[in-house]
Amino acid sequence: MAYNLFKSSKTSDKWKEIGVKRRAGTAFPLFYLYSRKSTGIGEIPDLKILIDWCKKSRLSIIQLLPMNETGYDHSPYNSISTFALEPMYLRIYDLKNVDAKKYDSEIKKLKRKFPKNNLKVDYNIKDEKINLLWEIFQNEYNDGKEFENFRRKNSFWLKQYALYKVLKEVNRLKGFEEWQPKHKRADAKELKKIEAEYKDRILFFMWLQWQLYEQFMDVKKYAHSKKIFIMGDIPFLVSRDSADVWCFQKKKYFKMDKLSGAPPDMYFAKGQRWGMPVYNWEVIEKDRFKYLKERLKYAANFYDMYRIDHFVGLFRVWTIDKETPEEMGGLEGKFYPEEENKWQEQAEKILNAMLTENDMLPVAEDLGTVPDMSYKVLEDYGIPGTNVMRWMRNYSGNYDFINPFKYRRNSAAMISTHDSSTFCDWYENEAGKIDAENFIGICKNRGYSEQSIKRIIQIFFDESKSSDHKLCWKKEISNVYIMIGILNLQWHEAWNFIDIYLSSFGEKEKFLEMIGSDTENIELTPDVIRKTFEAIGYSSSIFTIQLLNEYLNLHEELFSNKELRESRINYPGLMSDSNWKLRMPFTLEKLKICGLHRTIKEINKKTERNGL
């Protein structure tokens, strides 16, 4: 299969570093992993065990969800710095220039307090770990040349980040907009006083980042020795309460009177209100995109590739006035820039800046409502987009699943994403069903009374297979003409109903036909799982990257546990105690010996994904 388009694209120099090869990979957040050596949560050196497993599985890409330091919602996409790494991922035993064995009893105490035998992360580990690291720093710190060089090379962001962290503590962890005015506005005289008064604490936060840098650099070096590439995830936006927004407020890099979000769609009737501030691209451009270039230059220390989160946001961002009532969601927003003829020019300016001063190959997350020009830009630049199997449908026809062999060559093909249900959860609980609230909303917009809506639901849907949230079609509603006949509507009047019907009725049978499985028996089996992985492996996509928790479903023992196979990483738009807490059901050491790598290796060999 020819992939010559990459060799003549605007990223041809990046492809020389990676090699134009069909590759398979895996994606996960670091908190999902843990080893026997971990203290409370996955740690950066744990990646070496995962790298060994990937080598045995013929997986040559490791995609990490954002490693940036998070706030107290622990979402990797709501970071408090686009530079600083999350300090709870440090391994204390591997600290540089520190005899950590002296703190063996304290580390063991933490290990007992935060055991590994549960399926959810306890984020209290962060404060406890930082408290111990502070004690170690106070006792062990010696200012050496390496740390001094690190501070000098990262002067663009490091000191300001450390000041932000200290001021956050001084102001009792409030958001910076609620700080004392002199702290909030980063008054120069006041900052000098803070530097003098909290010199050791500021140095500590910089020291933590240096230790993270050293451990992560060591992992990248190890990955290269195994011919495996690490792909980072660069969050498109940053938290409103962040070091970036605070320290660059005078430069006006952010529109503080605006909030980012997403317009209404079939999944979110009111749209979405994310809350992060919108970039002021005109100002950032006048500064020659230095802020953006510095972010990527630092990330290149750790990654060979990077995922451009919310790629369509480079063209335009859904923007909501800060004063808009929260209950309105994203309903009253508008795109920035408003003029569609400016979108491509803006995206290309930003991309051109992103491609300078680093050797990383970008991969775009181009999901959601995608402007047509986006596909052309990705092709011109030789940047892979993202194709998610369940959403690859023939929307202009009868909504059949597209054969993966017809996917874009410049794409990374995925079975699921960290924001979606797992494949097993989708197949058993979502495929062939529709969202009840969405269907009721369509009926109300047509003017049906509540009594009529209840009657329509009784006629159309199988009560025994439906729930309060999901409605399952009756077999008797076997084609779209029966449905619109019962509704007594003309075709042009019923397009909403037709769309929702075609996208869901017989969905499992359509999917099984696409992967070449038996459509008579629609039960979810290990064979269906394997054929799904093989089908996406055969895709035309240059890369296939699957969630690590998805790969585990190829292990029959784990597949038999319904709770494990349906556990997901995040529920977008919902406040859930399960968000960003999922952990692997066993250690990395057990993963290495459980035999799963043999199955994955066979699939990659069969589908000619020989990236190693």
Summarize the structure.
With 612 residues, the chain is an alpha/beta fold. It contains 26 helices and 16 strands.
Please tell me about this protein's structure:
With 612 residues, the protein is α/β, with parallel strands linked by helices. The protein has a domain at 433-505. The chain is 40% helix and 10% strand. An 8-stranded parallel beta sheet has the order 11-8-3-2-1-16-13-12. A 4-stranded antiparallel beta sheet has the order 6-5-9-10, with no helix packed on it. It is globular, with a radius of gyration of 25 Å. The mean pLDDT is 94.
Protein topology:
Layout: H1 12-18, E1 23-28, H2 47-57, E2 61-64, H3 104-113, H4 125-140, H5 145-153, H6 158-170, H7 181-184, H8 188-197, H9 199-225, E3 229-234, H10 243-247, E4 254-255, E5 258-262, E6 272-273, E7 278-279, H11 281-286, H12 290-299, E8 305-308, E9 317-321, E10 334-336, H13 343-354, E11 361-364, H14 372-381, E12 385-388, E13 411-414, H15 423-429, E14 433-435, H16 436-445, H17 450-460, E15 470-472, H18 480-487, H19 495-502, H20 507-515, H21 526-537, E16 543-547, H22 548-551, H23 556-559, H24 562-565, H25 588-593, H26 596-606
Parallel strand pairs: 1-2, 1-16, 2-3, 3-8, 8-11, 12-13, 13-16
Antiparallel strand pairs: 4-7, 5-6, 5-9, 9-10, 14-15
